Amino acid sequence: MGQQQVGQHQPAPQQPQMQQQPHMQQARVTEVAPAATDLGEAWARVLAGLPPNQRAWLTNSRPVTLHESTAIVAVPDDFTRGQLETRLRPDLERILTESFGRDIRIAVTVDPSLDPEQQQAPQHQQPQRQQPQQQQHPLQQNPLQQNPLQQPQAPQQQYQQQPVQRPAQQPPAIREPLRTDGAYQPTIQSALTDPDNGPQYNQPPAQPQYEQQSQQQHSPFGQPLGSVAPPPNGSSQPATEAQGEARLNPKYTFETFVIGSSNRFAHAAAVAVAEAPGKAYNPQLIYGDSGLGKTHLLHAIGHYVRSLYTGARVRYVSSEEFTNDFINAIRDDKASQFQRRYRDVDVLLIDDIQFLEGKIQTQEEFFHTFNTLHNANKQIVISSDRAPKRLEALEDRLRNRFEWGLITDIQPPDLETRIAILRKKAATERLTAPPEVLEFIASKVQTNIRELEGALIRVTAFASLNRQPVDLSLAEIVLKDLIPEGSKPEVTASMIMGQTASYFGLSIDDLCGSSRSRVLVTARQIAMYLCRELTDLSLPKIGQQFGGRDHTTVMHAERKIRQLMSERRSVFNQVTELTNRIKHQAKQQ
Ligand SMILES: Nc1ncnc2c1ncn2[C@@H]1O[C@H](COP(=O)(O)OP(=O)(O)OP(=O)(O)O)[C@@H](O)[C@H]1O
After folding, report:
1. Where is this region: Domain I, interacts with DnaA modulators (predicted)?
2. Which of 103, 303, 341, 457 is the 20 to 30 A CA-CA neighbour of 505?
3. Helices 449-465 & 551-567, crossing angle to 10 degrees?
C-alpha cells in the first residue's frame, strides 16, 4: 500500500437522507458506504470523518499496514503519537471499524522521516533521505501480507543501501523474516548468529546499515549511549553487571526463535520494538497460551536492545516477582529503591501480567511505573496469557494503557513450525534425532512448546541410556507413556508433589523444607521439573509451591534433571515412573 493510494481515495459519497443526523459524515460511512477494501481507502474516510482540529494531527501521519484487526499508523514524533493514542484513538478506531465493518484498533509508531522539517533539510545534512524518499518506505511495503517465500530482497537491501541512519530514526518497520528455502530463518543479523547452530541458519538477512556504524550515536532514550557497536552474538555476550540486572536467559534470543505463521507478527513486532525502543510500539503486548514463546520473545528483545545500544538498561521481571518485590519494599520501607529499580530503565519487560489481576495495590504501583516509563519514552513490553480485554480483574485504566500500543498474539504452532523448533532445539542442545523421529514427536505434542522440547529430551535421553539409536520405535515407546491417548487430563502441582513424596517415602513438608540431603534434593528437583513439564505454572508459581523458593531455583532444577535424565538411568526411570503415576491419577479425577 503506497502513500499515493491513501490520497487517491475520496470520502464516501454523502447521502441526502442522512442530513438530519448528528456526526453526519460518520453516519454516512456507517450506514451507506460499502466496507473499505484497504487501509488507504479507510484512512480517507478517517480524514473525511474527523473534525478539522483533530484532522490537523494527521497531516504528517500516515497509515502503514493492516494486520488482522490492527491498523498501524506512523506519525512524525512522540507528541503526535501521544495525541493519537489518547485523544484521537476512540474516533479513529470507530471510523476504521465502521469502514471495515469489523473491529479495528490502531497501533501508533514514530517515524521521524515524516517530519516535514527533516524532509526539507539541506542535502548535506540529510544524505540518507535522498534514496529512501524515492523508494517505498519500509513500513509501506506491508510485508506482513506477503508470502515470505516470494518476498524479494528489496526491503532488506534498501536498508543496506542507505547510508548512516541513527537507530532512533530508523523507521521501526515490521519486517517479514527472509525465507529462501522453506526453512525457517532468523530475521536478525549475523552478529547474533549462534555459532552452534550450524550452516542451515547461517544466511542472515542483510542488515540495516546503521548496525554497521561505529560512530557516536544517540539512543532513543534521550542521551548518548556511546557507540552503537555491531551487535555481539546474543548468546556469547559476556555477563556484565548490566546483563545480570537484565536477568536474561542467554538461550532466549531471536536467533534461537523459530518463526512460523503462528508467531510471525509477534516476532516481527518484537524486532521492530527492539530496534527502536520507545519509538516503535509502546507498549508491545504479547499474549498467548502457556509455553508458546512469550517469555522467549521478551528475553530476545532484551538481548537485542542490549546488543544494539551499548549501556541500555533493560530489566526483565515476572509480574509475580514485581508483586513480591513491591510487598517487600513496603514492608522494609524501601519504596524509593523499588521505584528506582523499575523506573530507571530504558526497557522494562514484564512477563505474565495476568498475575496482577485482583492485586489492587500492586496494580496501582504498576500503573505509576508504566506512566513514568511511557512519559519518558521508555519501552515497555508486556506478556499475558490473555488478550487485555479478557483480563477482567485488571483495572480499566491499566487495560486502557495496554491498548495504547501494539497487541500481538501467539497461536499454537503448526506441524511445520513444531518440526522446525525441534530441529533447532536438537541442533543447539546437540541431540541427535533423525527427521522421522522429530516429525513423530511434533505430530504427538501439539499445543505447548515446552512439552514438545520435553518430549525430545526424554526420547534422546532414553536412547542414550540404553545405548540405542534414536529411531521411530523407540520414540513410540517413550511417548506412549508421556502422551496418553484422548483428552489431556489436568495435572496439578499438588498431585505432582504428593506422588513424588510418596514415591521417595518423604512428606510434602520435606519437599518444601530446607534439608539438602541428596535424596531430598533430587526428589525436590524432580518434582519441580515435573511441575514445569506437566503443568502451566510459571517459574515463580512453582517456586512458591515449594516453600517460597526463588524462580531461579526452579530453573536450575529443570536444567539439572534434564541433564541427569540422560546421564543416570535411575533418574530417567524415576521421572518416567512418576509421570505415569501422576497422569494416571489425573485421569481418575
Ligand atoms: N518459536 C519458538 N522457537 C523456539 N523455541 C521456542 C519457540 N516458542 C517457544 N519456544 C521454547 O518453548 C519453551 C517455552 O517458551 P516460553 O517459556 O517462552 O513460553 P511462554 O509463552 O512464556 O509460557 P508461560 O506462559 O508458561 O510462561 C522455551 O524453552 C522456549 O525457548
Report:
1. 1-190
2. 457
3. 30
Q: 575: phi > 0 → left, psi -120 to 50 → alpha, else beta; which?
A: alpha
CA distance 362 to 321: 11
How far is the centre of ligand 1, averaged over its atoms, from the C-alpha of 212 (Å)? 30
Binding positions are 291, 293-295
Pairing of strands 105-110, 70-75: parallel
Please tell me the predicted confidence (pLDDT) of residue 397.
Answer: 92
Nearest CA to ligand 1 atom 31: 296
- pLDDT at residue 120, as a whole number: 61
Q: Identify the CA nearest to 547 among candidates 588, 568, 516.
A: 516
Residues 6 or more apart whose CB falls under 8 angstroms from that of 183 comprise: 200, 420
Question: How far apart (Å, rounded) are the C-alpha atoms in residues 423 and 437?
Answer: 10
Percent of the chain with pLDDT over 70: 71
Question: Which sign does the torsion angle of CA 438, 253, 201, 274 carry?
Answer: positive
Q: What's the confidence (pLDDT) of residue 33?
A: 64
Residue nearest atom 26 of ligand 1, based on CA coordinates: 290
Give the pLDDT confidence score for residue 580 in this predicted structure: 86
Spatial contact of 278 and 378, defined as CB atoms under 8 Å apart: yes
For residue 244, pLDDT over 70 is answered with: no
Ligand 1 atom nearest residue 413's Cα: 1
Cβ distance 442 to 476 under 8 Å? no
Which residues have a Cβ under 8 Å from the Cβ of 293 and sit 6 or more positions away?
A: 257, 263, 410, 449
User: What pLDDT, on the 0 to 100 scale, is given for residue 538?
Assistant: 85
Mean pLDDT, the chain, as a whole number? 75
Which residue type sits at 68? E
Say how far apart CA 568 and CA 564 lie, in whole Å: 6
**Which three three-digit cell numbers place residue 163?**
547510508
Q: How far apart are CA 575 and CA 374, in angstroms?
A: 46
Question: CA triplet 97, 99, 105: central angle to 5 degrees?
Answer: 30
| Residue listed under C-alpha cell 511445520 | 416
Is it true that the peptide bond before 11 is cis, omega within 30 degrees of 0?
no
User: Under a CB-based contact definition with an 8 Å cutoff, are residues 197 and 424 in contact?
Assistant: yes
**Of 478, 435, 453, 473, nearest to 529 (Cα)?**
453
For 425-439, what is the HEC assignment? Answer: HHHHCCCCCCHHHHH
Reported ipTM: the value is: 0.99
Cβ(484)–Cβ(583) below 8 Å: yes
φ, ψ for residue 226, nearest 5 deg: 80, -160
Cell of 430: 546437540
- Name the residue with the closest Cα to ligand 1, atom 4: 257
Length of the chain: 589
- Ligand 1 pocket, mutate which of 296, 415, 532, 536 (most atoms under 8 A from CB): 296
